[in-house]
Automatic annotation (TrEMBL):
This is Tail specific protease domain-containing protein. It comes from the Bacteria. It comes from Luteibacter yeojuensis. SUPFAM superfamilies: ClpP/crotonase.
Amino acid sequence: MRAYAASFDDGHLRFYVPDKDQPRLPARWPGFLTAFDSKDVQRVVSRADDAPVPLGARLVSCDGKAADRLAADHVGSLVGRWALHSQRVSHGGELFLDHGNPWIARPSRCVFDAAGRSIPVTLDWRPIDNASLVPRLKATYQRAHEPIGIRTWADGTVWIALSDFDGAPGGPAAKALEPLIARLRAERETIVAAPRIVLDLRGNDGGSSDWSRQIAEAIWGEAAVAATDKEDIVDWRASAANIASIREFADELRKTPRSSRRMLQWADVIVAGMEKSVKDGKPYWRAPPDVEAKTSHPALPAPKARIFMVTDSGCGSACLDAADLWLELGAIHVGAETSADTLYMDIRRTVLPSGVGRLNAAMKVYRGRTRGNNVALVPKYPYDGDLVDTGALERWIASLP
């Protein structure tokens, strides 16, 4: 089922089993794990004391199959979108793990390169318990996840950590983002006069695009943001389940103090539109370009600060929407290449008939979106260091021209 869902190459289409229902399948490993580095080279990043290869050794091949092809066949087939660097970086650590998948023949002989020395290895697959596996697997892919908030450097630089855009009304992200945005609006004159503003999206997996729009309006002004609005064409799949999902979201918004008026209006218009399409026997409802009434806003002085936007390889969905908007407004992209998404968005979670499996599937599709299907964003200034090391990242950004 995972492989079937992965074959669609759509990050919003996913089959999974919740952790609480996951069967504890025994795991085996050969005493080491590899991961893709920033140059797409697979290197040993975790090893047992008796492992036959040193840390940093480069995987060349296994059983006559080149390292990149091996990873595509054994891991890419289960996660999809393997053409994306972000997928290889985030899932490459699974290559030398065996959970008994009968459709994958685990390698038996591999060749590594360590400082120019070829090391042939016969793999000794052995059990590894979950308590030992979790930290080792974590070492193959790490992301910074700073708490949402604002801090100021000694030189006046304003660093804004935006590690989560979850749209759940009243959830942890909302409770942190609402006062942050209020502060941006209240202190705008001071903030935009800083030597630089850093919008830190490390750790952000997406959520609601409304957060990034509110942040943009607070920094660049509502008139500047409105000028970026495009006549995007969006079709919603009109179904009873999709209507129920959006209606439930709207109900939560109504029960939550300080909910976004724009989001509530958006949800109500979507529900009404899909209901009419269902009544008329139409499979889709085409949303108007802007579900919010057009309002004119006075233009604010442009920010004096140079505005940098930091992304890591996990930035997708609403995180990408934020990047699209902020780049158009003039932000400078730094950090790592992002993830990517298809034109299918806004997922609904479904429990499958078994009661165990879950399915995430999209409810709407963009027609003619500016950023293409599964297209990642590449930074103007790529960062070759460790994005988890915030201090080093700060010093690097301060040195940029």
